[in-house]
Write a structure and sequence with these properties.
The structure is a homodimer of 353-residue chains. The first copy, chain A, is α/β, with parallel strands linked by helices and 353 residues long. Chain A has one domain: Alpha-Beta Barrel (TIM Barrel), CATH 3.20.20.70. Helices cover 41% and strands 13% of the residues of chain A. Chain A has an eight-stranded parallel sheet with strand order 1-9-8-6-5-4-3-2. In chain A, strands 7-11-10 form a three-stranded antiparallel sheet, with no helix packed on it. In chain A, α2 packs parallel to α3, α3 runs parallel beside α5 and α4 packs parallel to α13. Chain A is globular.
């Protein structure tokens, strides 16, 4: 048993990526943890009440370890010109679904910070043993507080420098997000476009510089990717897209379809959904917005502006307006249960971990 | 012995990337081929006379197999506005080195096509057994002609679709260039920025779709990368940056220094040197040009415009104006001989290939 599986109390060096926005249902987290990997709640967009409810649900259905991921809140950049540009561009989409832009309430920094604090309090109160962070690093005080409550603290890095900072701050492990990864980029020191480093180059360079365990994420879909990541110096892998496709995930059926139907070169990095760069299957909304090439509000403003649209698109089965997050390995995915996916990944190799 | 080593008549599944611009000296190609890997001449910018001379030199010093890489010429896009923008931006650099822009002679499509034909004639005449292509695919007639002379024909792809086309055209092998790779992007169907697929995702998706051997390139610097690429489904690897650093390479000492001193997140994709996107260590010229964010002439025009500057920069030891091509694995590199590099790569594993 390797140090990381022992530390995380899991059988396999496999973590289910904490995907926000309803994908990490209790069904998904429970199934992953019950089958020997680490289930993770993507709590990014949740309030503490909803988070607590989900944690309690999961604890009723498994005694295995699971974790929670939270977003580190940053400063909100207010730019009235970008805001009005975006509102103007989104207006036709709002009209398509009979939505009213006047109903949107933009968040304040205080609200985001308060929510983050309440999420952390909930994690401590519910004695969740693992907490990972994205979009930045927690304060030294937060790390200290979590450690005092025996919570394992995991950071997310996209570059060598970010990984080194995470170790320096005393965090316990690092998720190394390669350029291949689906969903939002976790960069926080580096520029999102300049920091697109493939795992082939990123893992060994980080492995040579830090001694905390490395969890590799991005484009890993099957045994080949798992073994390659371990060859390169990772201690475990975190997989997102492969779990999106499972029966237990909360992803919209058309989101799953778009990944299944991918032919290999289908993902793009885009900021049109949230104001922060993220990788997903190219669709109408991305193409239409790119054509206009607007300067958009940054995260979380743009995210709040498009949220009603994405919600309506799901209700109306309109994949042209959904955020179809996916990693570059999309076409390797298959629809299956969590059990089947984990069995396939570990077949003939489980004894090595 | 695997099918690819047998086919290429090499001991190890390792190919030295054909880097144009004086890096693949005869010393380098001979040393690589004599130590069990495949040496490659980067003939992209050479005329047939110089190419023939180098082939003859190499044949005098080794009986082992080696290959030649050529650039497939494309249409030249003339855009007088972009041309004058670029000339204006480059003028201060020309003045710095007392160079005259009037001395530049821009190439014609006919000249490029003629040179390409002469390069291929030379390869056939000199009975070089391996020829690889970049920036496009050769015509069916060219492939047929090379096959009639028992030349193994290798294409370069950056996406699943490009790799499938290369197989469809009857080429014998494909170099799969991941987003991690240094130097010029080999994309020819895909957009250069949209086609940045990391090897972790690219290799298995291609391996599932084609049956010709796959040579993985990009960010591979040591045994970890070699093993990972083979895990993912590659048959061999092609390494560039690691060979740039060898004693035998023709890279400028400051080019080698810039790679050695890299700290992990140092490369960027840029079109400022040649009009075609390429990956290298960030320096003054890239930063200064990016600040102005100009619409530049496409390859090969911009390449010809900056050529006198790059040449002068080498003579004057000014790394701020050199094209410091490097893959994303830069900081894994070490200065050593070809023999040492290959020994290190194959140590304890040679018997497996």
């Amino acid at each position: 048993m390797s140090r990381i599986t022992e530390r995380l109390q899991i059988k396999y060096p496999l973590i289910q990526a904490p995907m926000a926005g309803g994908i990490t249902t209790s069904d998904l987290v429970v199934a992953v943890s019950n089958h020997g990997a680490l289930g993770m709640i993507g709590a990014g967009y949740m309030n503490a009440v909803a988070l607590q409810k989900q944690i309690k649900q999961i604890k009723q259905r498994t005694t295995a370890a699971f974790g929670v991921n939270v977003f580190v809140p940053g400063a909100i950049e207010w730019d009235s010109k970008r805001l009005s540009t975006s509102k103007e561009l989104l207006q036709p989409y709002y009209e398509r679904y009979y939505l009213r832009m006047e109903d949107i309430s933009l968040p304040t920094e205080k609200e985001l910070n308060d929510n983050y604090k309440q999420q952390l309090e909930c994690i401590i109160e519910e004695k969740v043993s693992i907490c990972s962070f994205t979009f930045g690093v927690p304060s030294p005080e937060t790390i200290k507080q979590l450690h005092e409550h025996d919570v394992i603290v995991i950071g997310t890095a996209t570059t060598v420098k970010e990984a080194m900072l995470i170790e320096e701050l005393g965090m316990d492990m690092v998720v190394l997000q390669g350029a291949e990864a689906g969903g939002h980029r976790g960069n926080f020191l580096a520029d999102p476009l300049d920091s697109q480093i493939g795992l082939m180059a990123l893992i060994p360079q980080v492995a040579d510089r830090i001694s905390i365990p490395i969890i590799a994420a991005g484009g890993i879909m099957d045994q080949r990717g798992l073994h390659a990541a371990l060859c390169l110096g990772a201690d475990a892998v975190q997989m997102g897209t492969a779990f999106v496709l499972t029966k237990e995930s909360g992803a919209h059926p058309l989101h799953k379809e778009s990944i299944i139907e991918a032919s290999g070169d289908d993902t793009v990095l885009t900021n049109v959904f949230s104001g922060k760069y993220a990788r997903g299957i190219r669709n109408d909304f991305i193409d239409e917005m790119n054509q206009k090439n607007p300067a958009l509000p940054t995260y979380p403003i743009q995210n709040v502006l498009t949220q009603p649209l994405r919600k309506a698109a799901k209700a109306e089965n309109d994949s042209g307006l959904m955020s179809l997050w996916s990693g570059q390995g999309a076409s390797l995915g298959r629809k299956q249960t969590v059990k089947e996916l984990i069995q396939e990944l570990m077949e003939n190799n489980a004894s090595n971990y």
